[in-house]
Task: structure prediction
Amino acid sequence: MASYNKSEAQEWAWDTLKGQWTTLVTPFTPDNQVDLEGMKRNVRHVRNLGTVGAGCTWNMGEFWSLSHNERIQVMDAVAESAESSWPIGAHVTSTNANEMISLAQHAEAQGFDLLIVAPPYMATKTEDQVIEYVRLLADNTDLAIMFYNSPQFGIIMSPYGMGQLCSIPNVVGVKEASFNQQISIETHLSLGNDHVISTPDEWIYFKGQELGIQQQVMFANTSDWRFDVVGANNYVQWINRACKGDLDEKFYDTKLRRLKELSDTWWTKTQTKYNGALPVAMVKHWAELMGMSGGSVRPPLFDLSPVEKSELREELEPLKPKPPVIPAVPTQTRSSWLDGNNNFASGMLLMVSVQNMEEAMEAEQGGADIVDVKNLQEALVGSGHPNIVKAVRGIMPVEKHVSVTLGVVPNQPGTVAMAVYAAAMMDATSVKVGFQEAEYDQAVEVLKESRMALEGFNCKLVGSVFADNELFEKGLDPLCMVDLAKDGECDGWLIDTLTKDGRNLFDFMSEPILKDMVLRGKEMGMSTALSGHLKLADLDELARINPDIVGVRGAVCGNGERDRAVAWEAVAEFKRQVDLRKSGEVDVHDGEVIPVSGSNGWVVIDGRGKSCAGVIAALTKQVEMDRESFVEAILADALNIYDVSLWAEKSGHEVLTKRSDPDGTTRVLIRP
Result:
């Protein structure tokens, strides 16, 4: 929160505007509303990178598409997340001067430290107009002001004009983003001794070495959260050092140059495609690839095409920095292949069934965690053609799971093992083997032969039984699923349905039965999955059960019917609803709380980014080995927090404390 008066603004700027400041995008929900919770998550993420401060509702924040009220909402979300301890700036440019002043005064009231203003475009054709416009803002606020010089606003100020702006008492400096190196250099040389001048590109540091220019702040660009991850903040480190005159060229060449080259390539390509418009769509999708909230852009901009998104992901993936590996306390579990899909991802991953490349791209664009290839035209359900599996695997990012459904398999172990082997050869993440009419011992033999066929591959074996097997004369009892997966040496299991008469999973198996089965599976360290004509209306029940995977198809098709193509908008909405329940924003337990009390002393099991099955399996093993030590589980998913507490209660352990940390995680302390 600003603690200076107007006459002290320049001194405050010299002391505060240092190092890497970021630009925040404005994330939108699938229904085109401002994603305020996503904005708060983004702020927390960027703060964890070590970024010094941030600005909101800039060009990259699509301010021109936001209503006055939406800009206010974004400011409030950013101010709340900054917690009066992290410097923040609000961009207040508007073609309506009264609205500009209103935004500035709201920012000041909410504890913002700084204002950013640019020419009001449209009618602004001379430097005198810009100067008087900025003076009007300065007369109506005590906050420091940084001027934003960019061709996106229709006029580029000359170094002389920027000098006139800086003569206004609380205009403390300029973000010189004209993309004209000569203007930037002249501005630094003529104004840089008295005002904060920032060119938002690394070239200024290398050129500055030659010319005696020392830029002290990289003011508001997106490279921090596009180039860095928590635990490997190479860009922020390099910028913060460069701003102090420590220009480590070797570090830049080894850690950052290739990322910068990729960024420049995509920036130029996207900007050229739309005749100079800022590549907001590219930057927002890049944000999502780094684990942040983005969503679509608003008209008149266009999103990247599915092909462009896949290309960007493929090119970015090998360049992403890798945080140092910290040895985990829990041992590996069969379900560990589900860990780390996203930052703090754990249970309730969304699996979408597809039949062709087009549907796979829709599912991927909508944010599906797992793309499942199957063939709905073959018998009750069958496997997709190998060419489709290969093509889908080829376009999916490496971190995205691609599963293969073999459907209802014959009681022929060798034949099934060969199909399983083929799925592994095509680099499927997992292969599902389903049983309809089969003897238990036959099914175990099929699964064991399939396990042998997967030796040496990373492909995981998932056994499957259908909840509606009771409709078939020799249907295998679905209640045997957990034991079957254990005896068949599976990595996980799935319960699905086969009927197409409108009934779904819950018409055949109740929530309490499924909950018990899922908890048993998690205790054994297996992944658990539920599917079978599930719809949005079933999500509360599913969330209370909390399987590792929820599988859908009809619910994410164009009109809610399985015979219509998968639509990315429907996938995104289903995914959003799942995440609302995982975060606890939608409370599916009706506020039910397990009583807690205090104590101390513990063994830590870090469950962040781990599947719920992995966490519970690790807890089970820990208390089996050592019933004397306290055990603390670190969790980041509301559903997993509930399930760990439920596991403790059902197993006779005592939950002593639940403590929320500033990063949004919860620590659950358990006494065996």
User: Anything to note?
Assistant: Residues 257-273 form the longest helix (17 residues). Residues 537 and 665 are 28 Å apart (CA to CA). The domain at 6-248 is CATH 3.20.20.70 (TIM Barrel).
